[in-house]
Amino acid sequence: DPVSPPRLGCGSMGGMLALPPAQGPHQVGCTDVMVGHTRQGLFLRLFYPCLPRAGATEPLWVPRPEYCGGLADVTLGRRWCSALLGIAIGSCKVPVSWNGPLKPHSGGYPLIIFSHGLGAFRTLYSSICTELASWGFVVAALEHRDHSAATTYFCSAEAGTEEWIPFRRVPQGQKEFYFRNKQVHQRVQECMRVLRLFQGIAGGRSVPNVLHQDWDLSVLKDNLDLTKVAVMGHSFGGVTAVLALVKEPSFGCAVALDAWMFPLENLLYPEVPKPVLFINTEKFQTPESVAKMKRLSSRNSQTRIVTVLGTVHEDQTDFAFLPGKLFSLIFSRRGTLDPHKALAITSRAALAFLQKHLKLQEQFGQWDELLEGVGDSVAPDAPFGRSHL
């Protein structure tokens, strides 16, 4: 069918990217948190249930132009495309309330720590993070500093100078497994530090945000339930979530979106103590990767592997909501399933799983069938195409 020419500029009137509004009962707020003045610190975007506020501003989807440069380099291999990418997506907004006031919750919100994929960064999963927050979770979307992000930065103490950490490809002559395995272990350490950060805040520790946002982290003190913490991620972040269960007993379960299982050493599979929900796309996984997932499900009867039919790897990112022409320019192919439907399946399956394993008093059990691969567009461990990593 004919494709209308892309319109430049962006916003709720269509434009280049229209992220869907969340479907849950809570409005969603969002803020950025940077802690510490070295690369051993943390950088994350926080999504949380918020109070409605008149005239709330919406944050940019790509927070700064530097990220367009990183994306152009990683996805297109051409940094010169950065300006074009900036024109196409640079003014797109996320439909959440920037620095909106946290909605108090006497029982405390459960926490999800989210890990991004290779060549991504903290904001590229805004649709799934916003959706989960709208159902009553605080979601901390990390930006990893292991050179796997398209780019990232920290602010050193000297006059607040920014130091950028570029994406790094596997060095010539080095085996990819060893390079990626080191990264996945660093990523898990960062996930554990995020948990420690929130444990400190809950214990009354004052944590200064380097970014001086108009949002005080201490409001979280009595509004988090840190007995209910899950770890989640996409691709490289999916395997990060699996390894995090081995390293951190406080994580109750993991949700792995199209996990890239390659970087995890085999001897750790028997050590995964908690259940994992693997939500795969139809075109990404390899037989080797699925075999690794099945090893986990044979050890833990609560682990589930489902496949969302008609989807490709990028469908689990915000890129799914780009118009077809632009999507096809950046990625080789797109899925046949409507991205709104794919997001609904993914988030509902995750919510049902989280309710079960974090013991939440919610109504998410209505989506339990998705965990067994029952329903339109879902299948238990469906056939797979070849990986195109």
Automatic annotation (TrEMBL):
Enzyme Commission no: 3.1.1.47
Keyword Ribonucleoprotein attributed: no
SUPFAM superfamilies membership: alpha/beta-Hydrolases (SSF53474)
UniProt keyword terms in alphabetical order: Hydrolase, Lipid degradation, Lipid metabolism
Domain of life: Eukaryota
Molecular function per GO: 1-alkyl-2-acetylglycerophosphocholine esterase activity
Keyword Hydrolase applies: yes
GO biological process, one term: lipid catabolic process
Top-level class of the enzyme under EC nomenclature: hydrolase
Matches recorded under Pfam families: PAF-AH_p_II
Active site residues according to the UniProt entry: S235 (nucleophile), D258 (charge relay system), H313 (charge relay system)
Name of this chain's protein: 1-alkyl-2-acetylglycerophosphocholine esterase
Lineage of the species this protein comes from: Eukaryota, Metazoa, Chordata, Craniata, Vertebrata
